[in-house]
Write a structure and sequence with these properties.
This protein is an alpha+beta fold and 160 residues long. Helix 4 packs across helix 5 (71-83). It has helices at 4-10, 16-28, 35-47, 55-65, 71-83, 126-136, 152-159; strands spanning 53-54, 87-90, 98-101, 106-111, 117-121, 147-149. Mean pLDDT is 86; it is low at 1-13.
Length: 160
């Protein structure tokens, strides 16, 4: 049976160093490291920045390796990781929140017609962020909510 590091490496080429960096951050904040926390971190790192998982997906993937872990334990781990700035949750419209690593800042654009999610570079919103800060003293964080609208394919269908 392969060790945890081998399993981790085999899950889409995940970086063991990324997991260890997050583990170190948790420990530095005074938090305990448990098998369920490590498994949760591994699932998040393995998912990368461009796969957005809902909490139930994370629970399911953790339970592949730790079948008896309590769902509430995983939710508490997600909360601790978010408080440390390791992950963010995003509201993608009317569905459940999704989670991904916070080290790749991008904005989510969700098509209201077909549900397609487009990831836009966060720099596209810098001018608006600056204008809000300068004019009304508000520092906006656009990552928490997706911007809804219509994707190019659906726009073309409705125009044609």
């Amino acid at each position: 049976m392969p060790g945890r590091r081998e399993v981790l490496r085999n899950r889409g080429g995940t970086s063991v160093n990324a997991v260890e960096g997050i583990v170190a951050k948790l420990r530095a904040s005074g938090q305990r490291m448990t098998a369920s926390r490590r498994a949760t971190i591994e699932v998040l790192v393995a998912s990368g920045n461009h796969r957005h998982l809902i909490a139930e997906d994370i629970v399911g993937e953790v339970r592949v390796h730790l079948p008896d872990v309590a769902e509430s334990t995983i939710y508490r781990t997600l909360s601790a990781l978010e408080e440390l700035g390791v992950i963010i949750h995003v509201h993608m419209g009317h569905g459940p929140s999704t989670f991904h690593l916070a080290d790749d800042t991008h904005q989510h654009l969700v098509c209201q017609a077909c549900g397609t999610v487009v990831e836009a570079d966060a720099n596209f919103f810098q001018a608006l962020r600056t204008k809000l800060r300068d004019r009304v003293g508000f520092d906006a964080d656009f990552r928490h909510f997706a911007i809804t609208g219509t994707c190019a394919a659906c726009s073309a269908k409705s125009a044609g």
